[in-house]
UniProtKB/TrEMBL annotation:
Keywords: FAD, Flavoprotein, Oxidoreductase. Signal peptide: none annotated. Belongs to the oxygen-dependent FAD-linked oxidoreductase family. This is FAD-binding PCMH-type domain-containing protein. SUPFAM superfamilies: FAD-binding/transporter-associated domain-like. GO terms for molecular function: FAD binding; oxidoreductase activity. Residues 80-277 form the FAD-binding PCMH-type domain. Gene3D superfamilies: 3.30.465.10. Coiled coil: none annotated. The keyword GTP-binding does not apply. The keyword Mitochondrion does not apply.
Length: 515
């Protein structure tokens, strides 16, 4: 069962919640780039004096530099492409405050890295700038008196669940064990989201370090309530389906997200095509928190479709969190779409689902002989109406469409390059752009920030986009983050009133726990 409880959580973003220019103006000319490098070097020297050499390392001054520079999940964000001028290995919130105050005063470029699991190149690392790494802040604990989990920002969800499982509690967190706490800033999908909403819907309080180094605490009912809301960005069966079942399976997905009211039912579908075999597989993860009879009833349409293999078994939440893994050490890029669900037994077609799959296959066919591509994925993650409703009941978030909107599906199109490939291929990138331009998408539904391309206007797709822009303008009146770190765009304002997001370095929150 899921019970409301408090979690105090010190956390750090893997990317900034608000916006930044998609192109750093400091890189527009050799002179500007040189200036950025000089400023970064001066900033790093000051940070070494204030925080000490063990916490602030350069490529020539510290043994942990290479480890930190290669801490990102995607190869495109590692040391072969980005060499931070220095890395701040923060050990507490005060270190973060000191780092941000110095960065702010020097107008230096910077990046933040928590779990490092980002498909956006340059969002969790930096060239000619300061990287703040949380690899040394990676512990979690449980307070039974307060029914509270405390997590440091560098911890990954698998580590937290492993620590909490013997205690009978689990946070509403990531579905993949390697993913870090930055997941929350994109909203965060959990195996518990159908009942509890996005992971970020379960905040209770947040400690936030602003770009100038100021630490504030935001809750739903204090002076930072607008900031608090803005930051909200078992039977089980694994089934492998043949391509001949794809049309029926896509229909089942469309019907499930529209019609399902059962908050105990969770479904994820992954279509994968590896190079060079090009043998597409379709895997469906069906999870039910309840009896086998209820499982069979909720997933009846899926179970009626021919499949090549299945492995039904009861799993604990700990086992479930470790059932799916993403390979590391390869360059990966994401693209996103969202499709409305379709009622079963109606005249409404699932043509958009079929067209999206057709375009996925077209991409694979076009680049079947590419020496660069390792594999592609097409992933469908439901956002049920119950999840939307849970978000509103917990104070709302900027992401959700209007209350009453039927369930929909978040679509991820992923291109992962072969191991050893450190640069994107121009032709493959053009192919991804064609997919993004032509992939069906339902108007009025939000994209999922954590699984989108840097060029996609994710914030503009949010149900409360205007609210987000107002909060953005209020808390960063100098547009520091836009000018000095990469991240999502869409909240820019006229130069006369330039505003931009603070860096979300630390925040505490309370989440429901699953017992």
């Amino acid at each position: 069962m899921v019970a409301p409880s408090d979690i105090f959580w010190l956390v750090t973003s893997a990317y900034n919640w608000c916006c930044s220019s998609s192109v750093d103006q400091a890189q527009n000319s050799t002179v500007a780039s040189t200036s950025a490098a000089t400023i970064a070097a001066q900033t790093c020297q000051q940070l070494q004096q204030s925080l000490g050499a063990p916490l602030v390392q350069t490529s020539s001054s510290g043994p942990d530099y290479s480890l930190g520079a290669n801490g990102a999940w995607s190869t495109f964000n590692t040391e072969v492409n980005f060499q931070p001028t220095c890395i701040v290995f923060a050990s507490n919130a005060e270190d973060v405050q000191t780092a941000m105050k110095t960065i702010y005063e020097n107008e230096a470029d910077y990046a933040v890295q928590a779990g490092g699991h980002s498909g956006m190149t340059g969002w969790n690392t930096i060239q000619d700038g300061v990287l703040i790494s949380f690899m040394n802040m990676n512990t979690s604990s449980y307070d039974p008196d307060r029914d509270t989990i405390t997590m440091e920002p560098g911890v990954r969800w698998g580590e937290v669940i492993t620590a909490m499982e013997p205690l009978g509690v689990a946070p509403v967190g990531g579905r993949i064990s390697e993913v870090g706490t930055g997941l929350l800033l994109g909203g965060g999908l959990s195996f518990l989201s159908a009942a509890e909403g996005y992971a970020s819907d379960n905040y209770v309080s947040l400690d936030v370090v602003l770009v100038d180094g100021t630490l504030v605490t935001a809750t739903a009912d204090n002076e930072y309530a607008d900031l608090f809301k803005a930051l909200k960005g078992g039977a089980n069966r694994f089934g492998i389906y043949p391509n001949s079942s794809s049309e029926a399976l896509l229909g089942a997905i469309a019907h499930f997200v529209h019609d399902t009211n059962d908050t105990n039912a969770v479904m994820v579908t992954v279509i994968m095509t590896p190079w060079p075999s090009m043998e597409t597989s379709i895997s469906v993860l069906l999870v039910y928190n309840g009896t086998e009879a209820s499982f069979n009833e909720s997933f009846a349409e899926f179970l009626s479709i021919p499949y090549t293999s299945s492995s039904p078994s009861p799993l604990s939440f700990f086992e479930l969190s470790n059932a799916v893994h993403f390979p590391a050490g390869m360059g990966t890029l994401f693209s996103a779409s969202s499709l409305a669900g379709v009622p079963a037994n109606s005249a409404v077609s699932v043509d958009d689902y079929l067209e999206l799959y057709r375009q996925y296959n077209n991409f694979n066919s076009m680049f079947a002989t590419s020496p660069d591509v390792g594999f592609t994925l097409l992933d469908f993650s439901p956002v049920l109406q119950s999840q939307i409703r849970a978000g509103y009941e917990k104070g709302g978030n900027p992401i959700n469409p209007p209350l009453g909107t039927p369930g929909y599906v978040i679509v991820l199109f992923q291109v992962t390059y072969r191991e050893g490939v450190t640069k994107t291929a121009e032709d493959v990138e053009k192919g991804r752009e064609v997919w993004m331009e032509n992939a069906p998408r339902t108007p009025g539904l939000p994209l999922f920030l954590s699984e989108a391309d840097a060029k996609q206007q994710v914030f503009a797709s949010y149900g409360e986009y205007e609210f987000l822009k107002q909060v953005y303008a209020k808390y960063d009146p100098t547009s520091f983050n836009i000018r000095h770190t990469e991240g999502p765009s869409g909240l820019e304002v006229p130069l006369a009133t330039v505003c931009e997001p603070f860096s979300i370095f630390n925040y505490s929150l309370h989440l429901p726990l699953c017992f």
